[in-house]
Amino acid sequence: MTQGLTAVTNRIEKAKDLFEIPEGVTYLNCANMAPQLRSITKAGINAVRTKATPWKLSAPEWFSGAEELRDLAARLLGSDIEGIALVPGASYGIATAAANVPLSRGQTIVLLHQEFPSNVYAWRELAKKKGGRIVTVQRTNGMGYTEAVQQAINRDTAIVALPQSHWTDGSRIDLERIGALARSVGATLVVDASQSLGACSLNLSRVQPDFLVTVGYKWLLGPYGLGYLYAAPKWRHSGTPLEQSWLTRAGSEDFTRLVEYRDEYRQGARRFDAGEFPQFVLVPMAIAALQQILSWDVPRVEQALSTLTERVAELAAENGYSVLPRSERCGHMIGMRHAAGIPAKLATSL
User: What is the rounded CA–CA span in Å between residue 275 and residue 243?
Assistant: First the structure.
C-alpha cells in the first residue's frame, strides 16, 4: 500500500502544476467544485477576447464548438454523438427527463434518502401532477443502497432516479443491476452522474439509462453553467424538449432561411439542447476540460483516487471513525462518521 500510495502521490504532484493551485494549498473538495486547469483559464481568456470581435464570427461557428464538445462528451460516456445534449445544469436535465418519462396515477418514483435536491424536486412535482407517489430508499440493518433500491422496485414502479455515487459519502449504487431490474418491471431509469462521471467508471451500454445527466464543473473539471444530458435512442426521435429554441430546429444552421419555420428538430438528442447552447465562452473551456479527462483516462483517475481514499479509510479507522466498506463506495469519495459526532473544529482545522 505504501509503495502504491507513493507512486500515486508522485503522479498527483506532477499533475498539480496543471491547475491554478498555489503552493501551500491542498484542495480536497472536487465534490463541490473542481479547481481550475491552467488550460481552461487560457481557453476562457481567449474566448472572451474572440467574442470582442463578433463580426469575425461565421454562421458555422455558432455550431462547430458545440459539436466538438458534444463529441468529447460522447467519447467520455461511450455514447454516439447523437445521444448528447448540452444543458446548463443537472436540474435542467432532470426536468427534461421528468417531462418525458411516463407516470400514471398510483405508480411510484424511487429516490434515495438525502438525495441532492436537483434530483428530487422535479420528481416531487411530477408525482403531484400525475397522482404518483415518491418512495424514498434508506439503508437499514447494514444493507447497502443497491440492495435497498432493489427491494423498493416492483410492478408499481414507473421511474427509478438515482446517482451512481451518493453525494454525502460516496456510497456506490450498482446501476447495472438496478437498470436490469427496472427494465424487467417496465420502469424507466434516470441517472444523475454529477458526483461520479469523470472519476468513476460507468458502462453506459450495460446500465442502459433512459436519461443520464451530469454537471460539468465537478469531476469533469469544466466551467459552472454547462453540463451534459444523454438520451437513449428511443427518446431522440419522440422526446419533448423543455424549450422551443430556434437553434434546435432542423436547418437552423442556414441563417438565411430561419423564418421558413420547421417542425422538425435537429438530429438526435440535440432537440433537448438548452437555448443559447453555443455558449461562446463556456464551450471552449469545457472542451479543454474534457480533453484533459480523456487524456488521463477515467479508469486511471479512479485508480489513483481510490488509492488515496483507501489510505484515508485506514487512518479514519485507526482514529475511531467509521467508513463504508470499499465494496460499498466509489473510489473517489469517502464519508467518515464518529459515534460521538464530528468535532466542531475539524472543518476549520482542515
Answer: 7
- Structure confidence by residue, pLDDT tens digits, 114-172: 999 999 999 999 999 999 999 999 988 788 999 999 999 999 999 999 999 999 999 99
* Residue from 157, 98, 129, 165 nearest 324 by CA: 165
Contact (CB, 8 A) for 159 and 110: yes
> At 71, which amino acid appears?
D
How is residue 143 written as a grid cell? 444493507
CA distances from 50 to 42, 54, 173, 287, 344 (A): 12, 7, 43, 16, 48
Burial class (CB in 10 A: 0-12, 13-18, 19+), 320: exposed
DSSP string for 155-222:
TTEEEEEEESB-TTT-BB--HHHHHHHHHHTT-EEEEE-TTTTTTS---HHHH--SEEEE-SSSTT--
Amino acid at 96: T
85: left (phi over 0), alpha (psi -120 to 50) or beta: beta
Rounded to whole angstroms, the Cα distance separating 87 from 272 reads: 8
- What are phi and psi for residue 274, nearest 5 degrees? -75, 155
Please give the Cα distance from 205 to 184 (Å, whole number). Answer: 16
The alpha carbon of 6 is separated from its chain's Cα centroid by a whole number of angstroms, namely 30
Q: Does pTM top 0.90 for this prediction?
A: yes
* 114/29 Cα distance (integer angstroms): 19
Percentages helix, strand, coil for the chain, rounded to the nearest 5? Answer: 45, 15, 45
Assigned C-alpha cell, 73: 462528451
Query: 301: left (phi > 0), else alpha (psi -120 to 50), else beta?
Result: alpha
Residues 126/102, Cβ–Cβ less than 8 Å: no
Cell 410492478, residue located: 155
Q: What is the pLDDT of residue 1?
A: 56
Q: Quote the CA–CA distance of 40 and 45 in Å, as a whole number.
A: 9
Q: What is the DSSP string of 80-140?
A: -GGGEEEES-HHHHHHHHHTTS---TT-EEEEETT--GGGTHHHHHHHHHHT-EEEEE---
